[in-house]
Amino acid sequence: MTTAGIYDATPCALGEGPLWHPERAGLYWFDILRFRLHTRQGAETRQWQFDEHVSAAGWIDRDQLLVVSETGFFTFDLEAGTRTDLVPLEADRTDTRSNDGRADPWGGFWVGTMSKTAAPEQGAIYRFYKGEVRLLYPDVSIPNAIAFAPDGKTATFGDTARKTVWRVALSDPDGWPVGEPQTFLDQRETGLNPDGAVFDAAGNFWCAEWGASRVACYGSDGQFQSAVAIGASHSSCPAFGGPDMSTIYCTTARQGLSAETLADGRAHGATYVASTDTRGQAEHRVIL
User: Fold this and answer.
1) What percentage of the chain's residues is helix, strand, coil (to nearest 5)?
2) 136 C-beta neighbours (distance < 10 Å), count
3) pLDDT for the residue 177
4) Which of 62, 127, 154, 156 has the highest Cβ tally under 10 A?
5) Are the beta carbons of 24 and 62 closer than 8 angstroms?
């Protein structure tokens, strides 16, 4: 098993949404519970503070990100540090927030929402596309594992509370899901908790497993292949990056850990990094 090292030691309460920006050649990630966006600049960590939960982003161009918050989608200028609101997302609900999300091959963006207390079936999966937000799947508890196969024909999404990841076919030319989702990973017997995930360029599915201190690699058939050991209990979301896209990063969290676990000498909440023998996909550009 490959063992990851620490990329950034900043202890996130709930690290999520890592994004390798191809035009800036850098990693961006969120601390959802502290309302922050992070990046590394040389040996320094840079942070942007928001006034609400922020959880996921896609890149629009070199300087702008599409960011999803508990109330909506907005563009964020990395140079100016300014936001421009676009469209709301469950803005009328104070009990929910955004969670995992990722840009799709058509320039859209899928994101999940959930209860701030993880109440059952209070969240959903949405897609932002050409200025419109459309509900895809309701009654989700903890939405995660939103990812897109390299052939552009399949999307995945999961519910950590149900320990299940589904896959669904995507239509041409606009990338909307078609047909009923089919079970891809059913971890109810193993007890594993699928969290954030990403496909590599070969079609393998890399999934952070909350509570298991690892990112597991599964083949396109759903069979386990290998894993990267993460030095924290709650691995939350992976992302490929680096000059040749063969580096894997993974956020982690301190949320829900006991005082005893937090004092065990491991870097819970840090962001981790490891080299792999595969290549990831470049993240898709968001088209407004």
Assistant:
1) 5, 55, 40
2) 18
3) 98
4) 156
5) yes
Set 8, 31, 159, 195: catalytic member: 195
List all residues 6 or more positions away from 272 whose beta carbon is below 8 Å from its beta carbon.
4, 5, 6, 7, 230, 231, 232, 235, 249, 250, 251, 252
Burial class (CB in 10 A: 0-12, 13-18, 19+), 121: middle
State how far Cα 160 lies from the chain centre.
Answer: 13
Half-sphere exposure of 168 (CA within 13 A, CB side): 19
Whether 51 is catalytic:
no
Dist. CA 87–CA 91, nearest whole Å: 9
In eight-state DSSP terms, residue 162 is G
Tell me the residue type at 47.
Q
Strand duo 224-229 + 177-186: pairing: unpaired
pLDDT of residue 56: 98
Which pairs count as long-range contacts for 259-266, CB under 8 Å and 24+ apart, including other chains? 261/233, 266/231, 266/232, 266/233
Q: What are the strands of the beta sheet with 164-170, ordered from one edge?
A: 143-148, 154-159, 164-170, 177-186
Q: Token pair of 29, please? A: 């990630």
**Which residues in the chain land under pLDDT 50?**
none
Strands 143-148 and 132-140: unpaired
